[in-house]
Amino acid sequence: MERWRRTSFMLKRSSSSSTEGKKEEDASISGGEDGLLGFYSDNQVVTLPQGHRFPMDKYRATRLLLEGDLQLRSILTTRPAPLASEEELCLVHDQLYVQRIFMGMLDDQQQRAVGFPWSPALVDRSRASTGGTVAAMHAVMQGSRRMVAANIAGGTHHAFAGHGEGFCVFNDIAVASAVSLRDYPHLCNTESPILIIDLDVHQGNGTAKIFENDDRVITFSMHGANNYPWRTKMKSNYDIDLPDNTGDEEYLTILTEWLPHLIELHEPSLIFFQAGVDALKEDSFGRLAMTRQGLLRRNNMVYSVCLENNLPLVITMGGGYSRPMTASVEAHGDVYRSAALRYGALRLRGNLSVH
């Protein structure tokens, strides 16, 4: 199968972009047999130095928000994530790097690139964050009727094979993709590849680099053109560079055009959705201007294309850095709530078929 040409797009600002108009169909439908299975790793507690800029508390806050939502009681199941094994991690990461993480042997420069101080708790937390995505992948690929599962963490797309950066130790989506290629080769292969839809505001540079020569994984990243990573951007199969202050309508118009195109062209067997919410206008690092409602419409676009094409879906959290963190937590909650409601309602009606 010929390697798909890597394509980068820089979008120019339209002079008449409207932020009003379309409204996504309301996803608040109760009911459902199983709905969404979500794995969490906030039980692996990492204490960061006072004043650290990473919002570690958002993971537990998002989970508690979801578990406290009465409309989700019958359609959301949460479980602690298993720890990814060394064997699983080494499917994409260099063994020496994994061992240095495990033993706390990174040098100062490598540790600064990761962004977290080393501790045994960080090792367990990073393994659980990766293991949650691996477990979610197995949940949708092992032959059950489940078509969606999620990690209420993960999306650590800046981790490369041999180093971490940007608050990412291990690349959970890359590891889960590699495990899927190993365990389900009859489903995931060059004829029916894995498709990674990365909608975090920062490019998924580590993921792009890891799979740059692998026809079995297609990487799509739609991100801010002027955002981190500035010096380590890589080439995804598709890179959509958005100008500063891109709002809902411009963003959603572009995504509406791309999603069906990707499905039609590649006929994927499995979708990973990196659902970062740092495109919010309230985000400290985002530089875009999306609203909470716009992100909800974005989420439902991804869910709709997966449902319409009967494609198994794994959702991961990704970035969100509003201060205070309330806006990010609410938007993260929307990612999982809307999935539980959409899939729960359809399962109740018996419209989800075995893939």
From TrEMBL:
Q: InterPro entries under this entry? A: HDAC_classIV, HDACs, His_deacetylse_dom, His_deacetylse_dom_sf, Ureohydrolase_dom_sf
Q: Where is the Histone deacetylase domain?
A: 56-327
The record's listing under Pfam families reads:
Hist_deacetyl (PF00850)
Which superkingdom?
A: Eukaryota
**Key word Transmembrane helix present:** no
Entry keyword set: Hydrolase
Stretch list, region Disordered: 1-30
Provide the protein name.
Histone deacetylase domain-containing protein
Q: Which organism is it from?
A: Sphagnum jensenii
